[in-house]
Amino acid sequence: MDHVDVSRVMADIRMRASAELRERAFDRGNTPEFSDAKVFDIVEQMLRSAVDDGERKVLLLPEIIAGDKDLTLEPSARLTSHRPLVGPLIVFVKRRLLQPLTQWLYEYSMDNFRRQAQINRIMFAALQALAIETARLRIELDAAKGGTGRRGSGAA
Amino acid sequence: MKLACVVQRYGHEVVGGSESHCRSIAERLAAHHDVTVLTSCATDYLSWKNTYAPGATTVGPVRVVRFPVERTRNTHDFAELNNIVASGRATPEDEDAWFRENGPLVPGLLEHLKAHGREYDRVLFWTYRYFPSYFGVPLVRDRAILVPTAEADPVIWLRSLSQFFTLPRGYVFLTPEEAELVRGRTDGALPPSCIIGTGLDPVEPRAKRSDLTAAGVRGPFVLYLGRVDPNKGCETLLRYFQEFVDREGARVQLVLAGPVFMPVPSHPSILSLGFVDEDTRAALLDSALALMVPSPFESLCIALLEGWNHGLPALVNGRCRVLKGQVLRADGGLFYGNATEFITGLRELLDKPEMARQIGRQGLDYVEHQYRWPTVMQTLETFLQSPALSAVQG
Questions:
Q1: pLDDT-derived band of residue A55, with 50, 70 and 90 as boundaries?
Q2: Which of A63, A75, B191, B356 is the most exposed place for a label (fewest CB within 10 A)?
Q3: HEC assignment per residue over B35-60
């Protein structure tokens, strides 16, 4: 058999997988906008790049809200006590007695915290991609409006 | 040349990707150079408990100097620090604490580098994330060659690394994707580097083949090799494979071969063998239809290379850039980003067996050209002797 070009095979697989996904999203997902394959392709590509690149980008939204405690997940339990004398003893009891007893709940929560943090990054990346798209469209629109204006005045 | 290889654990009993890589390289370098391995006395990477005697010894052709671990890892503190790192909110103090707690804490090794580091022409460090490398590289930076084995996991985003990655005199990477990852995390230009991957010996025909039916393998099967662990993407693999069986029927069995660290569902089409010996492993690789590689994080996937060494086509997690890059460079497998693509890809491999075999052969060709030991060592030797590395040293 001749050499198999994996990129071509994958392009075909992705096309079939996308068509299947579009069918499900359109027919059973009540998203009539996906009747237009072009719309679906653009949306899918944008969301895919958010998922693929989200981990590797510096994202604006997390940077903007950084430092705001109300908007930040605090997954780790830094055990402290405000009591000056018995504080170390309280921390010791929390650490050696209470924490082992609740370890199962802690681990379960941590697992979900991690997943939530990942989902948040993907959402932030998707929002950023949408914001960039909106900004580009706005610039193009402004340029078109300006162009029309200039053309209009030139014609006059 | 007089070379030192710094690694967290070393010995015949030590199992681990970077440790095995270090040993394979050190043993081959020892054929032409004076090689000393500097390592800890530990064999267990979770506790770092001292197992070997401290001091100088010989392992195969290599001189090994072991340093005692000052204290074992506090698993609770480390879990806490891991959570902080994963949250992306680590302070410089947290980061420093993470590298210390990740261990192995071998102050004697650092003292040795301070006192004798200049006696070596090159000091090669394996894996940036462990104490000996993170705190050792700055001590001999003018001759330090880092083999980072970096993956796109949360640790790579620690802020101190952007400065740390500028320190080594040179880099030895396993894949172009790893080089790109480290380059993207480095303040300024990346020092000189080479990409070597790892070496494999050609598969030798076996006189006696293990009986796979006795192990429960029946009919055609696809294979997963390695630790059965959620961190290796096995949860996702099992879920996608069950979806495949739901849609396509029991066309093929999924055989998992490796120690199990998670619940494996009781399913008529899924067989978990646990740890398997070399003969069984070879028989599985010889008989499987395809290799499944679901890992989300890799710096180089040796299981994938092993599969190709046996002419197996692969179906890999395309969201891992290294796996996707390896597969595309070799034309040796398909990849998926979601369940639908997994199902479509596996169906493609099963429906077109001649194409699947050809893809496997292409993987083998790739290994022949890139990953045979003479090729790998030639690339490394040329790099270690290159003027770019020698320029700064006196």
A1: low
A2: A63
A3: EEEEEECECCCCCCCECCCCEEEEEC
